[in-house]
Write a structure and sequence with these properties.
With 213 residues, the chain is mostly beta strands. The chain contains three helices and 21 strands. It folds into three domains: 64 residues, Ubiquitin-like (UB roll) (Roll), CATH 3.10.20; 67 residues, Beta Barrel (Ribosomal Protein L25, Chain P); 74 residues.
């Protein structure tokens, strides 16, 4: 038995498949609405996730999604079956490294809109959304000295290296790291070994080192 999902042909020996199974085959999210094409002049039939569809009927069944939202990432076109997309999904689809920031392209004279990994973007707004990536270039202030940084996160150990040039693994060497002007909801505080925090331009670090007596 043959059928199509979003124009892609499939074959099966199963007489029935549910809407959820058809979506899985077509790479369609369960939250999207799937329809079965019917005779011209009639409204397509909505296929719910738990609806079994008889694929053994004489004609080839064609399944499709009515609402598809298009967008681009660095000039490459993509289709979404859902209204909202997270920055982390944009990063994954566009194979964007963590050393790059993601922006929503805005017409001049306005600035492009920064999109964080945990931020959701509405793709159903008027017009086609265009996302671009740019290398991260921020300045951290470490012991009152500006330090260039190319990530949105930093570890305790990386802060120490910025401060002193290296991280001494000697257990008698004790490092203390405090920060301010950081990223909400905790823009200031104290870091401990192994901890990673989010940073922004001009996040300030005070780092000291002492030896156990």
């Amino acid at each position: 038995m043959t059928f199509t999902v979003e124009g892609k042909p499939f074959e099966t020996f199963d007489q029935y498949k549910t809407g959820a199974e058809l979506k899985q085959l077509g790479g369609i999210p369960l939250g999207a609405e799937l329809f079965l094409a019917v005779e011209e002049g009639y409204e397509p039939e909505l296929i719910r996730n738990d609806t079994p569809v008889d694929l053994a009927r004489k004609e080839v069944e064609h399944f499709f999604v009515k609402v598809k939202l298009t967008f681009t990432i660095n000039g490459m076109s993509f289709i979404s079956y859902e209204q909202y997309i997270k920055g982390s999904v944009i990063r994954q689809l566009g194979k964007i490294p963590t050393t790059d920031d993601i922006f929503l392209k805005i017409e001049q004279p306005f600035k492009d809109e920064f999109i964080a990994d945990d931020e959701e973007v509405d793709l159903a707004r008027p017009g086609k959304e265009h996302f671009i990536s740019k290398p991260i270039c921020i300045t951290l202030i470490v012991n009152a000295r500006p330090k260039p940084w190319n990530k949105r996160t930093i570890s305790f150990e990386e802060v120490v290296v910025l401060a002193f040039g290296n991280y001494d693994q000697n257990p008698n060497r004790i490092y203390t790291v405090t920060y301010s002007n950081g990223v909400p909801p905790k823009p200031e505080g104290t870091m401990v070994k192994g901890q990673v925090i989010h940073v922004k331009d001009k996040t300030n670090f005070d780092v000291s080192a002492t030896d156990k007596s």
